[in-house]
Amino acid sequence: MTARSLSTVAFAPGVGRPVALRRDAPNASITLRGLSKSFGDKPVLRDIDLHVPAGQFLAIVGRSGCGKSTLLRTIVGLEGPSSGTIQVAGGRSDAGRIMFQEPRLLPWARIVDNVRVGVRNGGSKADARKAALAALDEVGLADRAGEWPSVLSGGQKQRVALARALVSHPQVLALDEPLGALDALTRIEMQTLLERVWREQGFTAVLVTHDVSEALALADRVVLIENGAIALDVAVDLPRPRRRGSVEIAKLEGAILDKLFGDIERPTDESPLHREAVA
Amino acid sequence: MRLDLRSLQSFIIPVGLILVWQALATAGEISGTVLPAPTAVFAAGWRLALSGELWSNIGVSAWRAAIGLAIGGGIGFTLGLANGASRLFERLTDPTLQMIRTIPHLAMIPLVILWFGIDETAKIFLVALGVFFPVYLNTLHGIRTVDSQLVEMGRAYGMSNWALFTRVVLPGALPSIFVGLRYALGIMWLTLIVAETISASSGLGYMAMNAREFMMVDVVVLSILIYALLGKLADSAAKLLERATLSWHPAYLSV
Ligand SMILES: Nc1ncnc2c1ncn2[C@@H]1O[C@H](COP(=O)(O)OP(=O)(O)OP(=O)(O)O)[C@@H](O)[C@H]1O
Ligand SMILES: [Mg+2]
């Protein structure tokens, strides 16, 4: 695809290594080869080749309905591919965890028991509880362990969901717009939290988001999906923690938005804002 | 204990009605053969309680109700679970059950008497048939409407089928199952009253019908009141159970 190769040249790819501080688990790399997925006779993903090195933070952006969620669900095995292969190498067979757009907490289980859902089977109940409490502590909610989920705020619920995803120390964490429903301030807080645990645990992260600036704040690499294929693959080689609104981020953001809206003429009222940001 | 004015307010009208009733009866405005005074009803209750007749009849009725509920509710619950879990099972059994449901179960009384005579089996059968459908339908509905996103989460997080059932599906279906249970309790008493009144040689309904033959209106009224009391008791028990098991539900979060 010409669009892809052009942009690849333009952004001089080179996958940035994450600045990981500590690695508890061996991480898994993800390799998709010729992945296609259709629902009925409606193709959603077409022949996707993608390699995500172990420990990388990958963000997937794209218009609504372009197949981001489908791609993510296929990676973690919630959907089977129509053709092609998915390989999660160097990891356990159940290496991945997914965080959904909604918290999806069990309303009838206490918060600590909700986190315990994420603990792998096999250990004792007491160990599972201890692990759950530790994970809750990590997201700053240890003091709410005995409460019902219904009393938490939206952001707190998502933090519990994050604790549930992290408690088993996954090697791959798939995130499907987990912050989409949060207000701007809570979002930034959650992004900081997410970046911190990723740096601490060093798992391979695949984040689906419709927010390009979120992708650029967090990811080592941003992939743009269009018409079920990869239209853009950009390395974000910027030091962390990243300063929001820095010139480099604004440049990348403008370029990605250009590509996103390019084919349908970007609305003119967006252009001054964009130029201002780049200047 | 918060027994303040508010909770007393709900007693004003019932107590007032009983007082008016008593006053009218004492003044001779209501004939004792139509509606005996509350004191007369109470006296009849005292008399039957002392002779032990009251307790044995209540016991027999409560036992029939319980056995019928256990059998009909148990089968309804099991079939509701099975049909909720398996589409194949539902296709096999649900159409037949829906067909049977169109028959009002009390219409079966003549047939049931022909089959079982007027012994215990007849009453238990009718109660079981009556409670079966509300329990079955609401269990099935509860399971079908469990949040599919939670089920998907459970699967994605590696729950076994059993864990998925006990930790996600059943708790999710519980509110609906309780609706079915409380509805079933109402039908249970109703069925029993009708069945005992028509054909029985013991039980509260029998006590009432027997008293009617001897024109003992006080005992008839007593039986009716005890039926009401038992119905209220069963409903309160179900409510308590519901409160205990659904303490997570925002509707019950009182803390
Ligand atoms: N289970 C399914 N059955 C049929 N079609 C589906 C199914 N899941 C997704 N689709 C279709 O696949 C396409 C891509 O859906 P997907 O959810 O992956 O989009 P998305 O990029 O995540 O969108 P959004 O940003 O709105 O979440 C849509 O057209 C959708 O209708
Ligand atoms: Mg989506």
UniProtKB/TrEMBL annotation, chain A:
**Does the keyword section mention Cell wall biogenesis/degradation?**
no
Domain ABC transporter as annotated: residue spans: 30-252
InterPro entries referenced in this protein's UniProt entry, alphabetically = AAA+_ATPase, ABC_transporter-like_ATP-bd, ABC_transporter-like_CS, ABC_transporter_ATP-bind, P-loop_NTPase
Question: For this UniProt entry, which residues form the secretion signal?
Answer: none
Q: Name one GO molecular function term.
A: ATP binding
PANTHER family in alphabetical order: ALIPHATIC SULFONATES IMPORT ATP-BINDING PROTEIN SSUB, TAURINE IMPORT ATP-BINDING PROTEIN-RELATED
Keyword field: ATP-binding, Cell membrane, Membrane, Nucleotide-binding, Translocase, Transport
Q: SUPFAM superfamilies under this entry? A: P-loop containing nucleoside triphosphate hydrolases
Q: So what family is this one in?
A: Belongs to the ABC transporter superfamily.
This chain's protein is named Aliphatic sulfonates import ATP-binding protein SsuB 1
Translocase is among the record's keywords: yes
Pfam families, alphabetized: ABC_tran (PF00005)
TrEMBL record, chain B:
Instruction: Give the UniProt subcellular location, in the record's own words.
Output: Cell membrane
Tell me, in one coarse class, where this protein mainly resides. membrane
Q: Name one GO cellular component term.
A: plasma membrane
Q: One short Pfam family name for this protein?
A: BPD_transp_1
List each copy of the ABC transmembrane type-1 domain by range: 54-235
Parts of the chain that traverse the membrane: 62-82, 102-118, 124-143, 164-181, 187-207, 214-234
Q: Which SUPFAM superfamilies match?
A: MetI-like
The yes or no answer to whether the keyword Membrane is present is: yes
Give a short account of what the protein does: Probably part of an ABC transporter complex. Probably responsible for the translocation of the substrate across the membrane.
What family is reported? Answer: Belongs to the binding-protein-dependent transport system permease family.
Q: What is this protein called?
A: Sulfonate ABC transporter
Species in which this protein is naturally found:
Hansschlegelia plantiphila
